[in-house]
Design a protein that fits this description.
about 180 residues; mainly alpha; Pectate Lyase C-like; elongated; 5peptide_repeat; At2g44920-like
Length: about 180
């Protein structure tokens, strides 16, 4: 009987150690992911939202979606908007001073009276976007996809050099 109870105890101990090992392994694998999520939270969706005058200044909003959002007078100054989507958003009077929209999309957006000074718009899709009375001094449009009419309109007012990329606005637009 002693051998039998020892085998039972050993089997239970082995099972408990196996469960503990699996639990610790899972816990260790989750730690880097949780740390990564704290540094880089998952993308946010603000589609169809009414965000007039909302302050997003300096925030990390990479890959966030603002499709069809009302962003009139919203403040995105110095925000990280890498890969963000603003498709068909209304951004009249929005402040994007120093914002980084690299690899983003802002098609069918109204940037009337918006401030894009010193913004980084590298590799951004900007087709059929309105730029009436928009401030673009120091904005970097390198490799941005724009309609020919937009380029002509922006070249008429382009000036300055982007403080982050060192690229002149006129050069980034291919102005002659």
């Amino acid at each position: 009987m002693r051998v039998s109870s020892f085998k039972c105890f050993t089997a239970k101990l082995f099972k408990a150690l196996l469960i503990l090992t699996v639990a610790i392994t899972i816990w260790l694998h989750l730690q880097p992911a949780q740390a990564f999520d704290k540094m880089y939270p998952p993308p946010l969706s603000f589609s169809n939202a009414q965000l007039m005058g909302k302050d997003f200044s300096g925030q990390y909003l990479a890959s966030s979606e603002f499709s069809n959002a009302n962003l009139v007078q919203a403040n995105f100054s110095n925000a990280d908007l890498h890969g963000a989507i603003f498709s068909h958003a209304t951004m009249n009077g929005a402040n994007l001073h120093g914002a980084d929209l690299t690899n983003g999309m802002a098609d069918l957006v109204n940037f009337a009276d918006a401030d894009l000074t010193d913004a980084v718009l590298v590799d951004v899709i900007l087709l059929r976007t309105a730029f009436y009375h928009t401030k673009i001094e120091g904005a970097d449009f390198t490799n941005a996809i724009l309609d020919g009419l937009q380029v002509k309109q922006l070249c008429a007012i382009a000036s300055g050099v982007n403080s982050k990329t060192g690229v002149a606005t006129r050069d980034s637009l291919g102005c002659k």
